[in-house]
Amino acid sequence: MATNPKKTEKSTTLKIEKIRNGIAIDHIKQGKAPDVLRILGIDENFNDVVAVAINVPSKILGRKDIVKVENRDLNGKETNKIAIISPNATINKIRDYKVVEKYKVSPPDEIIGTINCPNPNCVTNKFHEPIVSKFHVKSRKPLILSCAYCERELKGDEIH
Questions:
Q1: CATH match of 110-158 with 3.40.50.720
Q2: C-alpha–C-alpha distance, residues 102 and 94, integer Å
Q3: Where is mean pLDDT largest: 1-10, 51-60, 89-98, 104-113?
Q4: Which of 37, 47, 111, 128 is paired with 117 by a 20 to 30 Å CA distance?
Q5: What is the pTM of this model?
Q6: pLDDT of 4 above 60
Q7: Percentage of the chain with pLDDT > 70?
Q8: 122: helix, coil or strand?
Q9: Among 81, 74, 78, which residue's Cα sits nearest to residue 102?
Q10: Residue 111 in contact with residue 87, Cβ under 8 Å?
């Protein structure tokens, strides 16, 4: 959580300490870092170093968030959830202070059981029906999802 803005003559840079092993998630949509922490299950009981930068200037996104977590990797379900809330995010795997793998997240073609349909009349929201939610990705840029059951479309900030 150590953020140290340093002014230089030409620009302002943001310094977040390096981590030895773990992950750095960059290009997170502005304001979504708390959601990423929730996806990763990081709470007050988490014992390793976590660095969070929110509303950082970005040439590509205007503003972005960054999350670094020591001694942590991502599984496929976590990566897919991050891709849903922040489709431009980049995952950096770090070993011995070096990035050993870097990739952009991408929403899967189908999203099953991860998000709920906001349509109260959707069969997935009927208490007597044990049906798991399922969405199809209609578009990646911008991200548009369609419920497989009621065809309700979700866009942008409607996706949680």
A1: no
A2: 9
A3: 89-98
A4: 37
A5: 0.79
A6: no
A7: 90
A8: coil
A9: 74
A10: no
